[in-house]
Structure formats: structure tokens, C-alpha cells
Amino acid sequence: ILEGQSVSADAVTFTRFDIFLESPVVLFPVSACSTDFLRLEASSIVLKNRYSYDVLRPPTLCFAGDGGKKQWYNNCDVRICDISLQSSSGKILNQANCSPSALLSLAWPVGPSGPVNIPKWRVDCHVDSLSIDLDRSDYALLQHIVQYNISEETHHLGEWLALQSLPPDVLSSFRNSIIV
Are the C-beta atoms of 63 and 77 separated by less than 8 Å? Predict the structure, then answer.
């Protein structure tokens, strides 16, 4: 799609969602085999997406004089309202007068040229002020959840390293072959 042309998501099939969960309970386990977890209760969780478009990233992949190729992005918002946290023993971790809300916004490229967009993801997160009381075992629980879930090495590190070690002309040829 060239600059100045009308762009409409109606012409393309996109999956849209608008999901509302009332009084959900979400368990964050330490690991797949663990019986220890962090329990999150909320008054609601809302997941909703929309599509937008912008110029393809990086601009070096655009052809001179075409005004820049357009790229569609899936924008997903996850809103969690009135959060309450509990340990697996049932102890309430946040203070009684503290029920914060959170908004997590994600955006990623979709379509045939999605794989060449850099950076791949845009992630924004906002959490209201949260005050929690942790004893030694609660702190260890949170530390283990982060260690075994978030800090775990990616399963695609080998593919990423292989792409980084390609000679520039081969990488350029690869990128050009996947752009529509």
C-alpha cells in the first residue's frame, strides 16, 4: 500500500476480540510441577485488540520513491481491575486498602512482512501503586516465580543467534525475499 492511498482493515480478514472476565482468579505457578503459586484475584480482566498501520520498520527495507511500505500491527490491551494477591498458603499480600489496577499494552506486526519488523514487540505496562507485605517465604515465592518463568532462557535463542551471524548480503537477500 502506497502513501496517500486509503487503507482499511475491512478489506483484510483480521481476528478481533473483546473479552470480559468477571471476578477472575489467576494462578502463577513457580513451575509446571510445583504446587506453590501466586494467586491473583481481580474484579475484572478485559482483553481487547484493534489493528493499526504504520510505515514498515526498519526504513532501510523500503524502496526509494514508493513512500514507504505499510505494515499492520495488532494492538492488544489487557486491563486488570482491583487486584488482590495471595500466596499459596492463602495469606493476603497486598494491604486491605490497596486494590490497584494495571494496564498492559502489546503491539506486534502481522502479515507477510511482520518477520522483518524491528523491534518485533512494543510492550507498555502501567500498574497503580501497589503496597505488599512479604515475609521470607512470600519473598522466596516471588523470586522463584520470576526465576523459573521470566528469567528462563528463550527456546528460540539458537535461531536468533544464527540470524545474527549471517553475512550482511545474505541477511539482506533473506529480508528482501520475505517482503511482499
Answer: no
Cell 516471588: give the residue. Answer: 142
80, 66 contact by CB (below 8 A) = no
Which residue reads 513451575 in cell numbers?
Answer: 31
Nearest to 81 by CA among 119, 131, 43: 43
Residue 142's CB is within 10 A of a number of other CB atoms, namely: 17
pLDDT in tens, 169-178: 888 787 777 6
Burial of 78 (0-12, 13-18, 19+ CB in 10 A): middle
Q: Cβ(137)–Cβ(144) under 8 Å?
A: no
Using the Cα atoms of residue 25, residue 79, residue 56 and residue 66 in order, give the sign of their dihedral: positive
C-alpha to C-alpha distance for 72 and 155, rounded to whole angstroms: 26
pTM beyond 0.90, yes or no: no
